[in-house]
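Known limitations

Files may contain more than one protein. Parsers should not assume a single record per file. Below, a two-record file is shown to illustrate correct handling: read the sequence, read the token line, then continue until end of file.
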Amino acid sequence: MAGGRVLRGAVLDFFGVLTANMVEVVQWFEAREGVRPGTFLAAWADPRGQELFRRLELSEIAQEDWNTGFAALLGVQPDGLLARYLHDAFPAYPVLEVVRQARSAAIRTAVLSNSLGR
């Protein structure tokens, strides 16, 4: 119960909630790629990076186009960039256990998330 009300549903985000913390995933990616800490977030904040993410999420560009454009902002190779970035986005098992408990208590669950491509 929350404030005397019975919960009937829970909506969760995917990346960073049902997976490893986004900040850590970015840090691990930067370390593996050998780029300066903060490079990924700076590229993400750059208007060109924001536009690439927007266009990818709306399926206006292909995954390969995002890889090429974002890799140029990062100064890394484009091949498989998104997969390399998400390499450490492991399941957040404690959160998944809470979801399992909620479902077994007849609380409906859903994932609401923006896309990161394919």
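...continuing to the second record:
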Amino acid sequence: MLSADPATIVAAPAVPAAPDPAAATPLVVRAGGSVLVATDALLAHLPELARLADEVERDAHELALLGLDLAPGALRAEVDGCEADAFGLAAELRRLQVAVAMAEGLYEAGERASTWLHDLGAEWGTALFTRAAVFALPGVALAALAAWVIVPGSDDDKKRAMQRYLVDHPELITSPEFSGLVRRAVMSADDAALALAGAPPVLAGLLGEHGLGVIGVGTSAGALIGAGGASGGTMFAETKVKVERVSEERAHGAPAGAAERLERVPAERQVRIERYEVPGEPPRYVVYVAPTQTFSPFAEAEPWDLTSNVAGVAGLPAGSIRATELAMADAGITADDEVVLVGFSQGGLVADAVAASGRWNAVGLETYGDPGGGIELPEGIRGVAVRHSDDFVVATGGPQGPTDRTIVERRAFAEGAELPIDELAPAHQKRAYAETARMLDEARSPELRRELDALDSFARDYARREGATVTTFSYRAERVPGDG
């Protein structure tokens, strides 16, 4: 989660304004493994059309039976006419259902093809531009450095001024267009690096995400972590971590719905684990993982930092991932115990990585605003991934890979809506995702309801049984500086 350090950003005095529900954009749902993408309302209408067609067809059969008992004449002719109209209406309803589904499928296929062509063009364009601009880069870098030095004030003052400007102008980084720009930028980093090394543009296209997939966002992030470790400093240098159990207490009941699960994601104690037990059954666990705590690129005491973000995107064992697994082991979770993972921002990235590791029996995964789209999950892991199209943090993880999860997306702030000016990246804040979670709980599409109902019942079914006990563990993790 993007959050401002009190030492570097002074919050505006205005009380934060929650996203206006009246201006809320609809939930767009992509069912796992499906090319059908539509709003929640439209997906809810498709089964309704099928149900209505079945009912009309049933009435048509009843009219047919009624007609058999009537003598030839005007009344029989009227009934026969109604019967024919009913069968025709049922067929029309079925055609409408198929047409809507086909239209949405074709729209998604067209959008994917367009995105693929744009990304491929961006890879080639980046390589060509970098080769052309390579001689100008030193001059640009020197000019930027000179400008930084000339501006009056200390380095901390300049950083605070830049952060304050971004907080005061959230519209600069809160839009689907900016998120798309960020996604293409992180996807093009490897292409730029190849061009700087003198490789021809065709090689970038061949090795990139739209070719053999040898290089991509993950390799760029991995190179950054590798460079940090080789430098001997603490910038992007992974360390060992230690975990402390700070509380253990009995709780009552299970969360009811997506909004309550998101609410249980911790803010400071980075990992919360709930153990559900009933007599005669193996325990079940729900693991909640916190968002980023600091955006410093220097690996110091906090494992939920920028280093872990980059390492997680690279598919490496980030400090926050290792700390979460240590907490899970301390809570008594074994490789056979069923686990549902819930995370927000970096917590979602951690949840994705833990589920993908194969070391745990992850039966459900629920993430909000995480940059883990590029993490390859094993087949069969279900759940939901919730993202805002105007949240650029999601875009830093690159494109979404194949998944069995249901992807839910909406724009947190409609075009022209008033944005809060007291926080950085308002579309990424937890309160914006809390509004989306409430919309999820009201969703009606069968695809989304199936996943949410499974997540709800996982803990609730145990919590409601006689003799059930619920134990909550909270953990605090720290890096061990200087111990890589």
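Parsers that stop after the first record will miss the second one. For reference, the second record is described as follows. Residues 24-41+235-480 form one domain.
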